Amino acid sequence: MTSTEIRIPLTEIRVKFRSSTQRPITELDRLVMQAIAGGASSVEGLKPIFQLPERLLVECLVDLMEMALLALDTSGSGFRLTEYGVRSLDRDFKCFREQLDDTDEMTFLREDLAGRIAPGQVTRYDREKGDVQSLDIQGNVPHGEIERLLIRELKKNGKHLHSVESIVPTRDGISFKVVIENGGMSGLPNQWAHLKPQLLAEAERRTGISHVIPEHDRADVQDETLWIDASIATSDLLLSASAHESALVEAISQANSHLVVLSAHVSEAVLNKLKDPIKAAIERGVKVDVLWGLPSLEEGGESHAKTTKKWLQEIRKSLSSASGVGDNLTVSDAPLNSDAKVLVWDALDGSCHAIVGSYNWLYGLDAHYAERLGADIGVRLSDPRLVGNICTTLSGWINARGQHLNGIALRWRNIGRVLAQKESSALSDDSVTATKVRVIYDESHAGVLREGLVNASKRLLVSSHKLNRSSTGKPNSGGGKLDWLARRKEVPGFSCVLVAGRKPKVDTWTTEDQDRLELLVNGVGGSMHIGTGTHARVLIYDDVSVISGYNFLSTTHDKRQIGVMLRGKHIADALWAAFEPNPTSQLLISPNSV
Fold first, then answer.
1. Do both 293 and 380 map to the same domain?
2. Is 212 exposed, middle or buried (0-12, 13-18, 19+ CB in 10 A)?
3. Which one of 189, 223, 257 terminates a domain?
4. DSSP 485
């Protein structure tokens, strides 16, 4: 009898917050009160203005009455603002006093093998160090994910989250133990069932004994708590660089009160092209925040800080000083150490939208590949909980870098908190839009990649802008991102495709590296393509997809990342089709080449 003990290290995440049984004031509340002040005093009068389900409007009106901001008009004509409501609206709710509980604290646990946070209480852990390699994710805490879990726990007690005072990760030599024996596994908490395939593979590496995960368990390896049911259609996918360029122009023109653009890189040409649309937006009252992630595109090139500072000064100089709208534009003065590419804006109807993917919004596109499918890929999100998650996390990134920037970190945290507590519209019954979605961050991408390499049973596609030794590891000892392919066996009918936008640099890629890559890819009957002009970062395994700015096949240098993980066959099929062989694709490794 052979048993294997594996200890997985844990991180405690301590969260201090304030909550209340009374929900916080939202942007919808303010807009409804403004509409009532303007004469729309009934539900029927409000419906054509907001184009929202009647249920949501009624709930909003009832809540405003409970806060003493609205009252029924004694004439029976509908609703009216109370004196307190008029004063609160006039003063932008600065005089509105929220009845909050004292500061409270809640602790969450994150396993440091794949970086997942437990949604509930985990009691089986010890004050001992882990013995498996953990990701270097200390400090990389996704604020949006933490707040979503916090909101869920508070809802159980009928409370609403109002503010988060602090989020502090602490690694204190704690872990939990899993025992694998005779094909069985004990000690794995339900919240972390997704680790089962990786732990079985680790046990096989240590003992040489193969453990096969039961087929009926494969559907349960993903934790369900952080997934959101959302309607995502294939029309929400942006499959080319030109589609992203058009979406940016449309978002700037649609933005009603706030817009944030996060790009890893910037170029003077693109900034100048956006100058007039952004001026028009800030002149109509939109707060525009321009953020960039990395110091410069090329070592020794002009810094993005210099380029953006010059652009900001030019725009403010061109605006009338009497208008006072110059403060509506904020540009980061230092990099966020992020390779994420995100666009967030709100529309006139109160909805909020985000696009996440590979496109550098402020750097632009290569005209040669602008229309080519798969050159850049993104996904549009409209579910308030998903968008709120992203907004809160961006706020945490800004705070972590010590950038105050006119208080935009606090503003985006408040926007995210409000969105995260909204209910989404009713899901469509259409199977071609029903999708499970979650937002993933930072080095959690590496954990998801491992899940795909281990769990894929029908198809696997990995797309990355770059390819280097971090994907293959050392030629003799492995250890790269693709090393888990070596633990698979070739399966008839299984499709495996790897795509990189450029060849590895000659001075850092040896014959041994190439041999190692071929060994890994050929071992599963796969192929490796160099798709010149490909900037997309996508992972597909079976019917699960990840769309991100994360380079799956190259070094990431601990940069902050945002990606969207989707479960839906229609999405996976559409993405797979976008990577069909194209005229610029070069086959680096063919199936079963030797």
1. yes
2. exposed
3. 223
4. G
Same-domain pairing of 496 and 526: yes
Domain boundary among 420, 447, 464: 420
CA atoms within 13 A on the CB side of 317: 6
Using an 8 Å Cβ cutoff, are 251 and 361 in contact? no
Residues 355 and 215 in one domain: no
Q: Is the same domain home to 578 and 518?
A: yes
Give how many domains the chain has, as a whole number. Answer: 4
Range of the domain at 44: 27-90
Judgement on whether residues 394 and 485 belong to the same structural domain of the protein: no
Q: What does each C-alpha distance from 68 to 34, 55, 64, 414, 449 come to in angstroms? A: 15, 20, 6, 22, 51
The percent helix, strand, coil of the chain (3-state, each to 5) is 35, 25, 40
Same domain membership, residue 336 and residue 249: yes
Instruction: Tell which residue, 533, 535, 547, has the closest CA to residue 576.
Output: 547
Entry pTM: 0.78
Q: Is residue 427 part of a domain?
A: no
From CA 344, how far away is CA 355, in angstroms rounded? 7
CATH of the domain at 491: 3.30.870.10
pLDDT tens-digit profile, the chain (594 residues): 578 899 988 888 899 998 888 888 877 788 899 999 998 988 989 988 877 778 778 888 998 998 889 998 877 778 999 999 998 888 877 666 667 788 899 999 888 887 788 877 777 788 888 877 655 555 567 787 888 888 888 888 888 888 888 888 887 788 899 998 876 888 888 888 878 877 887 887 787 776 655 544 444 444 566 789 999 999 999 999 999 999 999 999 999 999 999 999 999 999 999 999 999 999 999 999 999 999 887 655 568 888 899 998 888 888 766 566 778 899 988 899 999 999 999 998 889 999 999 999 999 877 788 888 999 999 999 999 999 999 999 988 888 776 667 778 888 888 888 888 777 665 655 556 778 999 998 878 888 998 899 889 999 999 999 998 888 887 555 578 898 888 777 788 899 999 998 888 888 888 888 888 998 898 888 988 888 889 999 999 999 999 999 999 997 767 889 999 999 999 999 999 998 766 555 666 655 543
Question: Cβ(266)–Cβ(292) under 8 Å?
Answer: yes
Both tokens assigned to 209: 């004994």
Co-location of 67 and 187 in the same domain: no
Q: Do residue 157 and residue 285 come from a single domain?
A: no
Whether 96 is covered by a domain: the verdict is: no
